[in-house]
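Trying the structure run again after the queue cleared.
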Amino acid sequence: MRTHFRLLLLLTLLALVLAACGGATPAAPTATPVPPTQPPAATATSAPAATPVPAGPVQGDPYKIGLFFSVTGPGSSLGVPERDTAMMMIEQVNAAGGIEGPDGKLHLLEGIFEDDQSNATEGVLIVKRLLEEGVPILVGGTTSGVSMAVLDTIAEAQVPFISNASAGSIIQPVEERYWVFKTPQQNDPVAEVQADWMAAKGITKIASFGVNNGFGADSMAALKRVAAARGLEILWEGTFEPGDTDFTAQLTRIGSSGAEALIVHATPGEGAPLTVQFRDLGLNIPIVHNHGIGNQAFIDLAGAAAEGVLFPIGKLLVHEDLPVTDPQKGVLTQYVTDYAAYTGGSKPSTFGGHAWDAMQMTIMALQAAGPDPAGIRDYLESIQNFVGISGIFNLSAQDHNGIGKESLVMVEIIDGGWQYVPPALYANAPTRGLRETGDPYKIGLFFSVTGPGSSLGVPERDTAMMLIDQINGRGGLLGPDGKLHPIEGIFEDDQSNATEGVLIVKRLLEEGAPILVGGTTSGVSMAVLDTIAEAQVPFISNASAGSIIQPVEERHWVFKTPQQNDPVAEVQADWMQARGITKIASFGVNNGFGADSMAALQRVAAARGLEILWEGTFEPGDTDFTAQLTRIAGSGAEVLIVHATPGEGAPLTVQFRDLGLEMPIVHNHGIGNQAFIDLAGAAAEGVLFPIGKLLVAEGLPDTDPQKATLLRYIEDYAAYTGGSKPSTFGGHAWDAMQMAFSALQVVGPDPAGIRDYLESIQNFVGISGIFNLSAQDHNGIGKESLVMVQIKDGGWAYVAPETYTDTP
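Done. C-alpha cells:
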C-alpha cells in the first residue's frame, strides 16, 4: 500500500484557529540536532523543526521523504507506531507551514509511504520505487532483516537511509555503510546492561535463546562478545524460527542446563508465547529479554506471564520515573503528550521513538541542506548533542548511530506496566511485586508569604505545594532504596523578616529536614547562612544576591536558582549600547537585593565604558521619591536604572511618569510579576527590564530549548491555582524544588549526598535557565538565561536584541 502524506497550506490556518481555541492540534516537534556549522550546545532539548509562517511566505516545492515500515506481518507491533509517529510529525510540520530550506522558501513535507509487510524482498522493491519518485532520503526498515536487505540498493543509489532497526551490521563496517544511519541502540550496549545486572545478582551461567533472523543473530552475537569479556559462561544456546509458537522442547533443555538466567532475543510475536511457556513449565530462573519486546503488544500477548520480565531499553517507557534533571525527560514527556493527542490516547512505544529520532534528523537535514542527498548525508554525520527519544546522539564518520550504553535503563514489567530499575537495585530485581512505600522525605520550606516580599513569596509557596502534590499524587519519589517516598513539605512564613527566617530555619532543622528551600528575599537568605553552615544541611535560596553563594568556599552548603545581578546588568548594558546611551542614573532599595544589584551595575558600567552620573538609595517601604527623581532629572543622565521589587518599584515608576521625566526607565528583574503592573497601572507602560524567559514564553522562538518546560509550568500553575499566571519568582521555586526532588531520588535524605548531587547538576532545563552547576558555581546560569522584556498594554512583550534600538 502506498500513501502520500502531504497537507495543504490551509492547515496552517486551521492549526492557528485550533491553538487559539485550545484545541488538541499536535505541537511542533520538540528537539533538534545542533547544526554542524554551529558550536554544539550541551543539550538541544526543545527546538522544533517547523518554521512559523511569516507574512507573505514564498512557498517552494515540497520536500519528499521516502518511508517504509512494517505495518503488517510479524514486525507490525513495531512498525505501526513508527508509521504513526512519522505521520504525526509530517502533519505537525506542515500545519506550521513547512520548513524553511536553505533557499529561504517554505517547503511542505511530502511523505511517500509503503508497507514492507515485514518482508525483505518487498522492502527492496519498495526502496527502488521510492528512489524512482526522487526522494532524497529514506526512513524506515522496521526489522533488521528488511534494513539489511535494502543496503545494496541504497549504496548504488547514493541516497541516505536512516534505519529503525537495531542490528549493528546495518551500519558496520562503516566504510561500507557510507549512506546508512540508524536510531535504535546497538545490541552490544544492551548486552552490557544485561551483564551489569547479572554481575549484581552474582549470575555467571546463562542460556541464550533467539529468533533466527537478522535481529536475533545480531543480538546473540553481541551477548557472546560481552559474555566473553565479562567472564560469563553460555551453557546453552539455541534459535527458533520467526512465527514459531511452541518452545517447549528447547525450554525443557534450558531448564536442565544449569543456567542461572535465560536471555531471550525476540520481538513480541515470538517473545510473548515463549515467555508464557517459560512460566507454564515452572522454570525457576529469571528471564531477561532484549529491547525487542519494549511495547504494549508484549504485555497484551503475554498477560500475567510478563510479570517480572526484565529488559534493557531506552528511557521512554519509564520517563515519569526519571529525575527531572535527566536531559531527555522534557523531550520524552512532550512526545508522549503529542502521540496521545494524535492517536486518540495511545501510548507511544520505543519503536515509535526510533522513528521520531529519524524524522527529526531528516527534517533538520532538509532544513540545512535542502533535497540534496550528499548534503543530507554529510549533515547527518555531523549531528552532535541531539536530545532524542532513544538517547542523546553524537554521530561521526566512525559512528552512524551515535548512542550507547548511557542511553539505556533496565525495566521490569510490574502489574502490567513498566517500572524503572535503578542500577543500585539490580540485585533485588526482578521483584515481581509492587513498590513498597517508605518513610516520607522531608523538605524544609520558608517563603515570604506576608510582608514586603509577599508578591514574590506567595507564588513560590504555591509552586512548591503544587509540585509536592504532583509527586505525592504519583505515589511519591522512587528513592535509592527502591521504595516510593511521599514528600513532606514543612512550611513556615518568614514574614519577609530576617530574624524570623533564622528562627524558622532552626525549627526546620530540628524537624530533621535534610534540605531547605526558600529565602524569598536576599535579606532573609543572607541572615540564615551561618545557621545553615553550622548545621551542614544544603539550602537552595530563591533570592538573587550574589553574596548568598559567594565566596563559594564559604558557601559550601548554599545554592540558588535566580540569576545573579551581574548578568542582568550585562543585558541592560547591551540595550544601552544599542541605543548609544553612556550616562546613567542608578537608584535602588537599601537592602541586600538593592545593594547587590547596584554593585553589579557599577562593575558592568566600569567594564563597558558607561558613566554613572547619579547614584542613590531609598529605604524599604518608602513611597515618596520626588526629591531624588528631581535630582536625577537634572543630573544629565540619559536613562534611569532602578533596583527594586514591586512594593517600592511601582510607586517610584508612577512618580517618575508624573514628574514628566523623558528618559527611559529600566528596572532590574525584581519587578517581574503581575503585582508591579497592578500597582503601577498606566505608568508601567514602556518599562524595560531583563528577566528570565517565563513571562514571554509564548513569544519565544520555538527553537528556544526552555519553551516547552515554561509552557508546561504555566499550564500546571493555572490548573493548580484556578487560573492564575505564574511569576518568575514562582519559577525560582520550581527550579529549586525540582533540584531537591532529583537529589532525594538519587541519594535519599542524606544532607551531604544531596549537597554533592546539587553541585553536579548539568544541563537541567528549568524555568530560570539551563543549569550547569559546579564546585565553583552554585547558581549555574548566566546572561544566556535572560531576555529583555517591555511592558505593553498591561502585559509582557519580548524584546529581541536586534530590536533594542527601537525600544522603548
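The first helix runs from residue 10 to 20. Worth checking whether this holds up in the mutant runs.
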